[in-house]
Amino acid sequence: MKKTALLIIAFATFSCTKAQKTESTKNAFSETALSQTLLATDGNQVKFEDILKNQKGKITLIEVWASWCGDCVKAMPKLKELQANNPKVSYVFLSMDKTADKWKAGIEKHELKGSHFMANDGMKGVFGSAIDLDWIPRYIIIDKKGKIVLYRAIETDFDKINEELKKLQK
């Protein structure tokens, strides 16, 4: 009985520490995140800060994903529905793929509409750490002023994502 209780407590503790928070705990990205460069589809390196500057004045949904990620692929129909229901929102995709070829093939295969960039060092690299990346797909919503409205949402949070986007568009 004691072993079972300990297992349940250990599992609950671990699960809670890894749980995704959907409320924003930040209103801006760290200097480390902003200074990182990402690969653009044209082969150029672009600072994350400049990617965000290009979104100024727009409601932006950032999706962090990878072509090899099963949960990312499963979420694509919901993402497309979100895009159809929120056409005034700007979409930025940040890939955690390991190679540019797989990343670009994923964009084409899934017909992803938006701006596309790839992290140079994957999920566990400097950029991933700087945005507290522990799960993909991950969604971040930024308002027209550049403030983070929703910092951490995952594929099970589409109702929350849609609700936040609708509020921002009023």
UniProtKB/TrEMBL annotation:
Domain (Thioredoxin): residue spans on this chain: 27-170
Location in the cell: Cell envelope
UniProt cross-references to Pfam families, sorted A to Z: Redoxin
Coiled coil: none
Signal peptide: none
Organism superkingdom: Bacteria
Keywords linked to the UniProt accession: Cytochrome c-type biogenesis, Disulfide bond, Isomerase, Redox-active center
Segments traversing the membrane: none
Main location: other
CDD domains named in the record: TlpA_like_family (cd02966)
Gene3D superfamilies listed in its UniProt record: Glutaredoxin (3.40.30.10)
Entry annotated with the keyword Plastid: no
PROSITE patterns associated with the record: PROKAR_LIPOPROTEIN (PS51257), THIOREDOXIN_2 (PS51352)
Any GO molecular function: isomerase activity
Designated name of the protein: Thiol-disulfide isomerase/thioredoxin
Species assigned in the record: Flavobacterium granuli
